[in-house]
Amino acid sequence: MDKEFFVELLSLENVMKMSQDWLPLLLNYAGKLTLALLTLLLGWWLINMLVRKVGRTLDGREVDRALHGFIGSLASIVLKILLLVSVASMVGVETTSFIAVIGAAGLAVGLALQGSLSNFAGGVLIMVFRPFRIGDWIEAQGVAGSVDSIQIFHTTLKTGDNKVVILPNGSLSNGHIVNYSREASRRVDINVGIDYASDIKQARAVLLQIAADPRVRSEPAPAVMVTGLGDNAVNLQLRVWVATADFWAVNFDFIEQAKEQLSAAGIGIPFPQRVVHLVQAG
Prior knowledge:
alpha+beta, 5-stranded antiparallel sheet, 3-stranded antiparallel sheet, 8 strands, 18% strand, elongated
């Protein structure tokens, strides 16, 4: 009985000694952990609230939805990484080493994903400089289509026959881009050829009569000019300015009308001909 009491006393003394050694340390770290946890929760909430506020501000200014999502995601990621680093420093983690590890990991990932980072950088450039917007008709990388979506790594186009084409932003941002929708008006050029025997002034009058269309803008005024003297025809060009949305409809209509009206006026539209001379032997 005395032996058991003695063992219990020693155990109690050990517990008391351990509590005297560890209790201050535990209380110290408990305070730091509590403060760090509160900072993490409060900071996370503030970041989410800030991102939502930025989103509402961009909505009020009618910023493009693609740019809206990109800015919100990027700001959220950057701020939350900074928050985590700050919380780690509060609990005693050496932030210098922590940042060095993050940098080394980032370098390794960057070397492994060079193509993806190039596309990411291209996406940033597209978002910042806005060479095109969603809905614009563009031509790039040998493909023409309407911009359906702008993502961080790629841009999606829909062609005229409803094909979906995905272009990487890296090559897209560094290549040649033709935006057919940026300006409010475009010039339609109708090229026709008439016989050398035909009257150029009469042909010009016929083509200008075609241009008397409500879709054609008065400024700049429609014009017809001789663009060349071909092997079989005098080449004329009718130039009219229309709203960008009417470009293709006017283009196709005027080509058809040019053929009909010139033929009705007796003005021939030649086609390539070959003259063969037969030489009788002997």
